[in-house]
Automatic annotation (TrEMBL):
The keyword Methyltransferase does not apply. CDD domains: ENDO3c. It comes from Molossus molossus (Pallas' mastiff bat). Interacts with YBX1. Interacts with ERCC5/XPG; the interaction stimulates NTHL1 activity and NTHL1 binding to its DNA substrate. This is Endonuclease III-like protein 1. The keyword Transcription regulation does not apply. It is found in: Nucleus; Mitochondrion.
Length: 314
């Protein structure tokens, strides 16, 4: 069963694009479920389903900044899409650098490949519980090694990890379960607050827009874009963490040096073809875990050494 099918996603070859003011041409699709397995939606049904279900249950707040457009899988544009924008700048040699990274990552044996958010949920749980578990694993993962996040998720899942079970767990017990993830005390607080909002406003599910996800306590843009990709099967933006931020700057994949992951995300989205956005996070995170390390990168073992502007200075 593919990842989209596991979540009850659309696999009919249609792509959904969420827009928040910037250009976008999307890949991936996924109707919002309501806790039940959803049959693949036909074109147009997904839009109606998403508009209906993306709203919080009680507040009925509209995601006004988001427009939704569709593409067929062969790139044919549907109504509401804009002409593709040709980037005015792109990095020298990026295609060869990317091909080299794909080669170096071909074994798929980095920690992120086995323990990332795609692997932390219970595949037998109902779709909205799986989506909640994806979001929770992302919240736990910031400033934390994948192995530590996976251990915490295992302990939580052993008790039945749902919005209700978390809200019924006292803070001290929750802290013991997630320790030693980074900033575990703050995360206990954020997980409780976010779970209460999900229960109250989203019927125990997670929101299906970046704007609503980042409004949750303890959820940042990287987590939101990964949640959209993993839980909803929608490409909403490039998920940039410290690995992607560091490597993009070392390879000069940003027009000028960027100072934060968010700045890097915007710089990459300016030129990187959208059909590569979903691949970049996992590819570069694993590359950063194994070769382009934060300190003392293994440049001698890197296929990009001759093409890397930063290699000489490291
Ligand atoms: S040459 Fe070194 S700094 Fe450049 S991408 Fe490879 S490992 Fe990273």
């Amino acid at each position: 069963m593919c990842r989209l099918q596991e979540f009850g996603m659309n696999n009919a070859g249609m792509r959904m694009v969420t827009r928040s003011g910037s250009r976008s041409r999307g890949s991936g699709a996924g109707p919002r479920g309501s806790g039940e397995e959803a049959a693949p939606l036909q074109r147009g049904e997904a839009a109606a389903e998403r508009r209906k279900d993306c709203h919080p249950v009680k507040r009925q707040r509209k995601a006004q900044s988001l427009n939704v457009a569709y593409e067929t899988s062969d790139g044919e544009k549907g109504e509401g899409t804009k002409p593709l924008k040709v980037p005015s700048w792109e990095p020298q040699d990026w295609q060869q650098q990317l091909a080299n990274i794909r080669t170096m990552r071909s074994e798929k044996d980095a920690p992120v490949d086995q323990l990332g958010a795609e692997h932390c949920y219970d595949p037998s749980a109902p779709p909205k519980v799986r989506r909640y578990q994806v979001l929770l694993s992302l919240m736990l993962s910031s400033q934390t090694k994948d192995q530590v996040t996976a251990g915490a998720m295992q302990r939580l899942k052993a008790r039945g990890l749902t919005v209700d079970s978390i809200l019924q767990t006292d803070d001290s017990t929750l802290g013991t379960l997630i320790y030693p993830v980074g900033f575990w005390r703050n995360k206990v607080k954020y997980i409780k607050q976010t779970s209460a909002i999900l229960q109250q406003n989203y019927d125990g599910d997670i929101p299906a827009s970046v704007a609503e996800l980042v409004a949750l306590p303890g959820v940042g843009p990287k987590m939101a874009h990964l949640a959209m990709a993993v839980a909803w099967g929608t490409v909403s933006g490039i998920a940039v963490d410290t690995h992607v931020h560091r490597i993009a700057n070392r390879l000069r994949w940003t027009k000028k040096v960027t100072k934060s992951p968010e700045e890097t995300r915007a710089a990459l989205e300016e030129w990187l073809p959208r059909d590569l956005w979903s691949e970049i996070n996992g590819l570069l995170v694993g590359f950063g875990q194994q070769i382009c390390l934060p300190v003392r990168p293994r440049c001698q073992a890197c296929l990009n050494q001759a093409l890397c502007p930063a290699a000489q200075g490291l």
